[in-house]
Amino acid sequence: MKEWQTFVRKFSDMKEGKQELFIKDLARGPRKYDTHHVLAKVSRKKETLKKPETLWLRSESGVRHPTPWYVHIEKELAEYGEGNPWSSVFDALEKRNQQNK
């Protein structure tokens, strides 16, 4: 099973269901830590997803959640999001989502 990781401000921010995420590949080799911008279904239980892969959550400071979540990638999105290099990716995504409403 493939393993990924994503970062959240607080662990409680992660919700089950369809999510737009930046995830990092944890596979060994030269592609380790490659980032993918995806639309995916996320769940605490792998039984609820078709072809689940492991998703590790990390806080902004890098603390890893003790139990894995699971993810099924539905679609690859643009490789980057609009924003300033010094700004938070969370803030850039939130601003974009507000503009699209």
Give a summary of the structure in a few sentences.
With 101 residues, the protein is mostly beta strands.
Could you describe the 3D structure shown?
It is a single chain. The mean pLDDT is 88. 12% of the residues are buried. This protein has one helix spanning 89-99; strands at residues 3-8, 17-25, 35-43, 53-59, 69-76. It has one domain (3-99). The chain is globular and about 35 Å long. It has a five-stranded mixed barrel. Helix content is 11%, strand content 39%.
Radius of gyration: 13 Å
Give the strand tally: 5
SSE arrangement, N to C: EEEEEH
Count of all domains: 1
Strand sequence of the main sheet, in spatial order? 1-2-3-5-4
Features:
single chain, 101 residues, mainly beta, five-stranded mixed barrel, 1 helix, 11% helix
Secondary-structure topology with pairs:
Blueprint: E1 3-8, E2 17-25, E3 35-43, E4 53-59, E5 69-76, H1 89-99
Parallel strand pairs: 1-4
Antiparallel strand pairs: 1-2, 2-3, 3-5, 4-5
